[in-house]
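> tool_call: predict_assembly(chains=three)
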Amino acid sequence: MNIIELRGVRKQYHAKTALSGIDMYVRQGECITLFGPNGAGKTTLLKIISGIMSPTEGKVLYNDKPYSESDIKKDAFYLGHRTSLYNALTVMENMDFIRRLFSLDRRWQVEDILRGHGLWERRNDPVNELSQGMKRRLALAKGFIMNPKIFILDEPFTGLDHRWRSAVLAKIKDIKKQGKSVLISTHLVEEGHRLADRVAFLHRGKFLFIKDREEVDTGEIYGLFDSMGEAAR
Amino acid sequence: MKTNRTISILFFLLLVMMPLDFYLIFKVAPTERIMGDVQRIFYLHVSLASGAFLAFTCTFVSSILFLWKKNLIWDSAASASAETGLLFATLVLITGSLWARPIWNVWWTWDPRLLTVLILWFIYVGYFLLRGGIADRFKKAQYSAVIGIIGYIDIPVIRYATKWWKSIHPLLTREGGGLNPVMKNVMFFSLTTFLVLTVFLFLFRFRLARIEERLQKLKKLTED
Amino acid sequence: MKFMGSAIAILRKDILLELRGKESLSLMLFLSLLLLVIFNFALDTGKENVSSLASGILWVVFTFSGILGMGRTSMAERDEDAYLSIVFSPASAESFYIGKVLSNLLFLVIMEIFTLLFFAVLYDFEKIISMLPQLLPGLLLGTLGFSLVGTLFSFLTTASRYGEVLLPFLYLPVVVPIILGGVSSMDIILNAKAGGAGKWIQIMAVFDILYFAVSLLLFRYIIEE
C-alpha cells in the first residue's frame, strides 16, 4: 500500500527550480534512500513529502488524501538539518515537551529511549552544552517518543562519529523492523545502500533513477558522485 | 488575451475621460463660495480615496481566494491591486495636505479619515516590505495574503477608533457645506473616471505580473 | 480537553525556556526601565505634568517592550526550527496559536507590572498603583490585543530574511486602535476626564474578538513553509 504518493511535483524558488517532474510513492514499511550531490533538491523533496512545504506544482497524497485531510502531521517524524530542539532547555525538558504535546504518559519510556541513545547521563544538561553529535542523537531520539508511522530523516548521520553512526544505523534498522517507513537522504553510500529497500539518485531536481536495491550496486553510486564532482568543476 | 483587449479599451476610454474630467473640474464646476478654487482639489481627493479603497478591497478578496485556492494567479492579483491602492493612498495624502494648507492653514490635520488613510498606507508599505524579505514564491504569496486580510479588516476599527478619539479632541475646523447639483455631477463623473483608472492600473500591473511569471517559467524550460 | 492540553504544554515550555534562557522577559524589563529614563529627559515630567503624561508614556513603553519581547519569543521557535516539533504533533495550528498567545500575554503582563512599579518609583506617582483596580480592564484588554496581533505577526516576520526587524512595521499600524484605546482610557480614568472610558473598553474588546477569530483562522498558513 502506498502511504505517500507524489505526482508531477515541481518546486520553484525565486529564480531557481529546485525540483521538477517528480513522481514517486512510498510503501508502508519500506526504506528509501536518497542520494545526490549538494543542491540536488534532496532537502526540498523531503520537506515536500513531510508536508511542511507545498510544491509549486503537482500533488502530494497521503493514503490518497491531500495534506489538510490527512493525519500526516501526527504520523510523520521529520528531522531536518536543524535539530528542532530548544537549546536553552535541558535534554529531559525537551523530551518532556514532546511527551506532553502527544499527551503521552510514558516517563519510563523516555528513560529507555535516552539510555538507548546514550543521553541518560546528560539528561539534566541544557542542549546547548551538548556536542554536535549528541544534539543530533537527541533530535533523533525525539522521534521514538512520538512513535510515528514514517521517519523522514535528512542527513541523519552528519556530525556523528563512527561509533554513533553505527548506533544510529542500528536504530533505523529497528524502526524498519517495526514495520515503519523510512526516508533518508545521505552522502554515505555504504550505509544508505545497506538500509534501503529502494535507492534513488537525485540530480538537479530530477531523479536519475529510483529502483530496487538489488538493481543498483554501490559502485554505480560512487561512480555517479565522482562524475558529478568532476562536472561541478 | 481577453485582459489585453480590456486594457486597450480602458486606455482609450481614459484618454477621453481624463481630460474631460479635468475640464469639468477646472472649467465647469462653479467656484466654491468660501474656499474658492482650492476646493477643486476635493474632486480629485475623494475620487482617489475611493479608488484606493476599491483597490484594497480587491487585495483583500484576492488574498482570501489565494489562501483558499492556492493558485498564484490570486497572489498576482492581490499584489497588483495593493500597488495600485498604495499609489492612490499616497496621492490622497498629498492632495489632502495641499487642500489643508489654504483651507485649514495647516499642512497636516489629524482628521479621522486622513488618519485612516495614513495608517492604511503604513500597513501596505509593510505588506511590500514583507514581500521583499521572502524569496520563496509560494511562501511570499501565503504570508502577504495574511497581511492583505488582517490589514483590511483593521480599516473599520481604525476608522471608528480615530473618529471617537477626535470627538474627544474636537477639530477646530469643519468642512464646507453641501454641494450644489453641478458640483455633484462633476463629483460623480470624477469618481467614475478614477474608478476606471483604478481598474486600468490594476489590470495593467496584473498582466505585467503574469508575464513576469511566464517569463520565469520559460527560463526554467530552457534551463532544463 | 486535548486542545487546551497542547496549548498549556506550549505555555509551560515557554515559561521553562524563560527561566532557563532568560532571553526575552529580562530584556523587556530592561528596555522598559531605559525608556522610562529617556522619557524623563525628553519630557517635562514635573509634579503637575506627570498625571497627564502618564498614560502616553506608559503605553509607548508597553508597546515597544512588547515588540521586543514577542520578537524574541518567536525567534526562540525559529531557532533550530524548534517549532517543527509542534507542527509534527497532534497539536493543531489553533492550539499552537493559543499557546503562544498565552505565553506572550503572560510575559507582557509581567513586563507591565514592573513598568508600572518603575513608573511609580521613578516619577514619584503612587497614584498609578492605587488606581490599578479601575485601570485593570483597559490594561488587560489592550495587552490581550497586543498579544493576539503580536503572536501572529512576530511569527510571520521572523520567517522573512529581515527577521524580527520587520515586526514593528507591520505590527504598529495594525494595533493603532489598541494604542488609542489604551492611552485614552487610562488618561480618562487617571485624570477624571469626561468622555467615557467605557467606550474605549468596548472598542478594544471588539478589536480583541475580531483579531482572535481572524488570527485563529490564519495562523496555520504561516506555520507551513
